[in-house]
Amino acid sequence: MTQLEQALKGNITPQMKSVAENEKLDAEFIRKGIAEGNIVIPANINHVNLKPYGIGKGLRTKVNANFGTSSDYGSIQTELEKLRAAIECGADAVMDLSTGGDIAKTRRAMLKVATVPFGTVPIYQASIQAIKEHGAIVKMTVDSLFKSIEEHAKDGVDFVTVHCGVTRSSIARLKEQGRVTDVVSRGGAFLVGWMLHNDKENPLYEQYDRLLEIGRKYDVTLSLGDGMRPGCLADATDRAQIEELMVLGELVERARKAGVQVMVEGPGHVPLNQIEANVKLEKVICKGAPFYVLGPLVTDIGAGYDHITGAIGGAIAAMAGADFLCYVTPTEHLGLPDVEDVRTGVIASRIAGHAADIAKGVKGAADWDLKMAQARKKLDWEAQINLSLRPEYSRNVHNKHHANSEACSMCGDYCAMKVVGEYLNIEIVKC
Q1: 325 and 273 share one domain
Q2: Cα(first)–Cα(last) distance of the chain, in Å?
Q3: pLDDT exceeds 60 at position 21
Q4: d(Cα 357, Cα 349) in Å, to the nearest integer?
């Protein structure tokens, strides 16, 4: 049985217990959340080295890191290096978005290393295969698409992005809307092209029950993709986006009835003043399903610094109720990220998620900050470094300019806390 089916029967699985321990919550809270559909544990029955994480209401905001080969760059070794770096920096989940080289071989190599939930977008492989065999994405067959999805599931993939809400109706809304950037989702674009060329409905929507059978068989969590997500601020919260969201709300309910775990993906580019409304819309329309947001990016001009624009939007979205943040790296919109870009993106999103967790009162979130504040008051540099998000990096920054006193090189002998501490007899830790 899937985690959802077990939860509905009142059973607490080992995965639920593990998540409860990690979150410092009661296992019954996790079971109830899964049964109600507002928590998911992506845990494919074939992912043998998985440490399960929960995503959803009342839990710590989770962070996902994407990487993968492209048609221009990347190898299995480069992407494995990025995967390891992401996990070391605290990513709670990873996704392989490979479109170049041997996609299946790359995915399987990553799955052997990934100890966190692992996601993919199966239509990438199906589309690239159609190009190799028939010369065009629009020649992809329905059977080959579902064969790809089942292959990913059989390999052990924990969650799959499936753009089921890209329907003829949402394409009609897109045409009427007159967007600036049209469709920026790669998977969404593949489907739009296929549907228009073949004059057929989206097979992921039309044969959704077939998808549910695969999800239930392997306990794969469906991540209902936002193929109509806005690619710039001018397109945010428009009719095409909302039309797709309405469809996804219906599909969430169908997945739950079939015993399949499901979450919903959210928009990419959204102005600050629309983020909270977007989160609340998803929570209402999709019956509280965990919300996985791609950023969101709060301005279109952050090229080279989009990890910052994404972190700003991610913090606001998570505070409003989003559960899962897809990281954004400095190379977003510019090129394929390298290992250091991956690290930077993960840390930026972790900061965003943690800031939101404090605001939401997530258990234990504020305690971490209190410990850091106490270490700073004592000028205990070793404790501060160990409490930081990336200790080795913090150590290097601190040691870059050596201080001649207990304080850092910013203030030296004139450190405010050092000066006041001497008068108040506060213990200073000698490092």
Answers
A1: yes
A2: 54
A3: yes
A4: 12
